[in-house]
Specification:
Order of helices and strands: HHHHHHHH
Strand content: under 5%
Structural class: mainly alpha
Largest sheet: none
Shape: globular
Helix content: over 70%
Number of strands: 0
Number of helices: 8
Radius of gyration: 20 Å
């Protein structure tokens, strides 16, 4: 079994576990009359289903690392933090979520670039450009999110940014750290198998490399 299939099976197991846990929580909290928690669990299921709809609608095959990072983010941010109330237990959990969002957005940037390459039928494209594009895409999206939070705070009197420039900048820095770490990971993969991060099929690229150089 290829490494890719193993990773996809792991992702399948994580997603199924989320469905099972959320279904149990819906029943448990409904019986106890804690309907707000039941709705939060239902929301997680809806998000998981929505992701599948988006993937099918856009005809985009998510590579294992992107899918894992999204499922891990849902587990941390929606399951542990919101449903189980871990915000008061784990220090700086909010900042950890911003780091994870940087990771996810970096992978999303790479997916966007892959789609553009496929649609334009580009035969050759530098993997270095792919890494830089994914990095800058993630950082830009982190800035856009903070603009969104600032706008909603001003319009609706919310406190998403705690009324602090320091909170905004720390969030952007956390997202940038996550993006930078992911970019280094992508650069490492690209160095081992050139163009693998853009082709979407690392196993096939590896076979081609071995066929040219048996060593």
């Amino acid at each position: 079994m290829s490494e890719r299939k193993k990773n996809q099976r792991l992702n399948d197991a994580i997603e199924i576990s989320l469905y099972v846990i959320c279904c149990f929580c819906i029943v448990y909290y409904t019986i106890r009359g804690v309907y707000a928690k039941s709705i939060q669990a239902l929301l997680i299921i809806m998000v998981l289903l929505l992701i599948r709809v988006v993937v099918k609608w856009t005809k985009s095959e998510w590579f294992p690392a992107l899918r894992f990072s999204v499922l891990f983010f849902i587990t941390v941010a929606m399951l542990f933090a919101n449903l189980f109330g871990f915000y008061g237990v784990i220090p700086y959990l909010d900042k950890m979520e911003h780091v994870l969002s940087g990771v996810i957005l970096c992978f999303v940037g790479l997916l966007v670039l892959r789609k553009m390459i496929q649609n334009q039928e580009v035969s050759q494209f530098s993997s270095r450009i792919g890494v830089w594009f994914a990095l800058f895409f993630s950082i830009a999206m982190a800035g856009c999110w903070e603009i969104f939070e600032f706008t909603t705070d001003r319009l609706f009197g919310l406190l998403s940014q705690n009324g602090s420039l320091s909170d905004t900048m720390v969030d952007i820095i956390c997202g940038t750290v996550g993006a930078a770490g992911t970019a280094l990971y992508l650069a490492y993969k690209a160095k081992r198998h050139p163009l693998s991060i853009l082709s979407g099929n690392e196993d096939q690229v590896a076979k081609k490399v071995r066929s040219v150089d048996p060593k």
